[in-house]
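It is worth pausing here to work through a concrete case rather than discussing structure prediction in the abstract. The textbook approach is simple: state the sequence, then state the predicted structure, then interpret. We follow exactly that order.
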Amino acid sequence: MLYALMCKDKPGALDTRMAARPDHVEFLKDLDAKGVLKMAGPLLGDDEKPIGSLVIIAAGSKAEAAAIAAKDPYAVAGLFDSVEIRAFNWVFKNPEA
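Step two, the predicted structure:
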């Protein structure tokens, strides 16, 4: 099952995001190497600066997706104000379909 991790940054946390970014990128590369990561990228505000993250992963359950999300260096650094996890059905432009 695919899960969408919709993560909203705390207000004024751009410095936290940038400091944790190298570890976050390595974390995503590791998920990709394991076949877990399907896509990821920052959510942007009206000023086109990052205000959150959207990460699509494969996991066996919502609980497993939550455990993966909790290990993200952004989460560990306290960047996120909220994290919403939803089952996701990738229908269009899915390279695996």
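Step three, interpretation. Residues 27 and 33 are 10 Å apart (CA to CA). The first helix runs from residue 14 to 33.
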